[in-house]
Amino acid sequence: MNDLIKPYQIPLKTENSLFTLVENRTAYTYDSCELNVFETHQKAEDVKLVFNDFVFTSMLRGKKIMHLENKESFEYLPGESVIVGPNEIMEIDFPEAKEDQPTQCIALAISQHLIDFTLEMLNEKHPKVLDQEKWEIDPSIHHIINNQELINTVNRIIKISKSENSVTKDLYIDLAMKEMIIRLMQTQARHVFTSSTQTLSNHHPLAYAIEIIHSKITEKIDFDKLANAACMSRASFFKKFKETFGYTPGQYVLSERIKLAKQWLKKSNCSITEACFNSGFENLSHFTSTFKKETGLSPSSFQKQFRLHAN
């Protein structure tokens, strides 16, 4: 069962309004960025696309095969986003696109001026934990699994583009874009710190704290002790954790417990009660309500859906 977090679903164009069946483009242009909506209504291969600016793309419908410079080819699906550098050529295949099953994707071309302004502001007013660290977009983390915080900002940009007509429209877009840039860097930080926790924990206090959380995820976690282990006050620890990753330590613990609970619920012989206590929750009622709030499904419904799709 795949938990897709996709941007706002933009209505597809009717066939008679398309300029071309391959990568038909609709653009919304602003001072600091350009929102492009691409649709493809027939199979195609080796379609080349390039932007002069840094580009954030996100899939809405269908499937692409992406070929980026000096990177291995990969499938690109709804629930995922890809970043591409200025003047980097994208070669794209559309293996399944057809009239009744088109591919749709957004591409946000972002001015370097806006990126530089946002990074300078963050590095000056919200410096990273270590002196040698700087806020920056990491081009090596180019294929991203969406999270709700990142996509919420993308949704605001789409909705402003499609419905806002005031003279301050550019200002609204500018503010949403700055937040999106920050959310993107937080998303990348989550990937780096969770995929390389043990390596980073030797020299980075936040990675050390995450390693402790992982080792004690089924136990009651004392956040004061966690802050002490990171050599910070509780207030500073919470502030830096939230700035770096986009969520608080408590929210991270909860997300990890939900992730663990899903693993237990997928086991054929695991009960709801066992999944609850095996993933660090202390109360079955709290587990049930929290799981439903975070996933949209009760634990029993999640378990039934998984077993239905597994058979």
From TrEMBL:
GO molecular function, one term: sequence-specific DNA binding
Alphabetized InterPro entries for the sequence: AraC_XylS_family_regulators (IPR050204), Homeodomain-like_sf (IPR009057), HTH_AraC (IPR018060), HTH_AraC-typ_CS (IPR018062), Tscrpt_reg_HTH_AraC_N (IPR009594)
Stored SMART domains: HTH_ARAC
Pfam families registered for this protein in UniProt: AraC_N (PF06719), HTH_18 (PF12833)
Keywords of this entry: DNA-binding, Transcription, Transcription regulation
Ranges where the HTH araC/xylS-type domain occurs: 207-305
Protein name: AraC family transcriptional regulator
